[in-house]
Amino acid sequence: MSVPGSLAQRIFLLAHDPDKGRVRVGTNLGAMVRAAALTDLYLKGHLTDERGRAALAPRRPIADPVLTTLLDEIEGSRPRKWQSWVDRRQRATVIAVREQLGAGGWARVEPYRILGIFPATRVTPRDPRVRKELLRRVRAALKDPVGRVEPADAALVAIVTAGDLALVLDRRARREAKRRIQELTDLSGPVGPALRKSIEASAAGAAG
Residue 47's pLDDT is what? Predict the structure, then answer.
């Protein structure tokens, strides 16, 4: 079973609740999708970590327009911590990834109006087996020897954990696999901890 090539698209599909037919309200989708795109750039060697900040590696062409746009953002800015890049332009990145899923044939993307007034977009995955395969990869990453886990699959675990995506890993599962999750987070790079800090800061700001 093939799955989308980008981590951001994979995270979007994992966050989509098949029972509700949508991403649940309150899901940290924007932060997770941004973190996934940053992780893709890091794992593919386009970004490196310099004292907790995202740093550009020698520029190479990227076929993915979402990743190209993000790399352009970073190139045109002063050095910033990973958390800062997670925080920025979340809605725009979600929209771009959503359109990618539609263009790639992974989902139907249909505009509609809530109560006939408010514009919205309905995203419907075309093949439920794709999400099941992504869930299988998450489960395998938690059980297989760490040395046999692909960094991209380790990143899925790190992101859904930091993003508190209980639809994929509930609190009990995270507690039981705490040590393994930390190993996978270490394997996938610096973005997982930055995502957690971003979500904690957002929650504290809303509470305050």
Answer: 98
